[in-house]
């Protein structure tokens, strides 16, 4: 009986010598690793520069960093148990390839979202145009960007798509130039028309005085002289000033006898 117990003790001692210390070491590494990962994530999330990033991006970045660190921790523990490094690389590579193929579209959208959040071609609240849709950015999510169009429709665009398109941001600058083309009769006095349009622009309270309004004859049209009127306005006042000047130009032309001609066609008969 004593020999039986002696064999058990010898087995336990051999196990402790070969496997037990590795198990103990892996437990220590696991505990310390989890503590360090949590501390690092907390440290990053409390930085002022990190707090400036949109909430969705904060969650995404924190999750990606956490996942990467836990993979490193798992690999470290596997190496303690003498798992061949080549096998680990093969397993991780196969798993990464399978996940990448399964989530190809989603990962490209996430990558596009990260590009948008880092490069910042636009931000929430900006009015943009991507060539297909125009509207106010209401949300930049992990996978999609949402726009609200001027007629109050919601457009959802994949981040992978919008990050690879040319974007026009109408809100990034405080001021914009408004360009109008106004046609008058060939019989009109050029200097009178120019003076009238300058007065019209200066009379509008939302038109900026610096840079000063610009008025010149720009085209000799088929049936009319085309004058270019260019004024600078605050971006938020763009459309208000646009419609106001178009309406006011008709009224002041009528008062001063400046004709806005119809399209004319001359027909010669034999």
Report on this structure.
The protein is of the alpha+beta class and 270 residues long. It has 3 domains: 2-102, Helix Hairpins (Orthogonal Bundle); 122-169, Roll (SH3 type barrels); 175-255, Alpha-Beta Plaits, CATH 3.30.70. The protein has 8 helices and 8 strands, in the order αααααββββαββαββα. The N and C termini lie far apart (136 Å).
Structure summarized in a few sentences:
53% of the residues lie in helices and 18% in strands. With 270 residues, the protein is an alpha+beta fold.
Structural class: alpha+beta
- The outline comes out as rod-shaped
Major beta sheet, specifics? 5 strands, antiparallel
CATH fold-type name of the largest domain: Helix Hairpins
Total of helices: 8
From N to C, what is the helix and strand string? HHHHHEEEEHEEHEEH
CATH class annotation of the largest domain: Mainly Alpha
Count of spatially separate domains: 3
Give me the Rg, rounded.
Answer: 35 Å
N- to C-terminal distance: 136 Å
Helix content: 40-55%
Q: Strand share of the residues? A: 15-25%
Could you say what the CATH architecture of the largest domain is? Answer: Orthogonal Bundle
- Uncertain spans, ≥5 residues at pLDDT below 50? none
Strand tally is 8
Record keyword descriptors for this entry.
270 residues, alpha+beta, Helix Hairpins, SH3 type barrels, Alpha-Beta Plaits, 3 domains, 5-stranded antiparallel β-sheet, 3-stranded antiparallel β-sheet, rod-shaped
């Amino acid at each position: 009986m004593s020999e039986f117990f002696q064999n058990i003790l010898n087995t336990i001692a051999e196990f402790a010598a070969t496997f037990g210390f590795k198990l103990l070491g892996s437990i220590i590494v696991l505990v310390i690793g989890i503590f360090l990962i949590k501390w690092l994530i907390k440290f990053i999330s409390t930085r002022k520069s990190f707090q400036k990033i949109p909430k969705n991006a904060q969650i995404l970045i924190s999750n990606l960093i956490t996942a990467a660190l836990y993979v490193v921790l798992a690999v470290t523990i596997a190496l303690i148990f003498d798992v061949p490094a080549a096998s680990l690389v093969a397993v991780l590579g196969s798993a990464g390839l399978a996940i990448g193929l399964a989530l190809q579209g989603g990962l490209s959208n996430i990558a596009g979202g990260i590009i948008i959040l880092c490069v910042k071609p636009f931000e929430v609240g900006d009015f943009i145009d991507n060539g297909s849709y125009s509207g106010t950015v209401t949300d930049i999510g992990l996978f999609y960007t949402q726009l609200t169009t001027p007629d109050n429709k919601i457009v959802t665009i994949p981040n992978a798509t919008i990050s690879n398109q040319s974007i026009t941001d109408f809100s990034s600058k405080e001021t914009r130039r408004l360009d109008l083309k106004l046609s008058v009769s060939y019989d009109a006095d050029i200097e009178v028309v120019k003076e009238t349009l300058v007065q019209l622009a200066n009379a509008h309270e939302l038109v900026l005085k610096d840079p000063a309004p610009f008025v010149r004859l720009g085209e000799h049209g088929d049936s009319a002289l085309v004058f270019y009127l260019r004024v600078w306005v605050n971006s938020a006042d763009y459309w208000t000033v646009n419609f106001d000047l178009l309406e006011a130009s008709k009224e002041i032309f009528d008062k001063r006898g400046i004709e806005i001609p119809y399209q004319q066609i001359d027909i010669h008969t034999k």
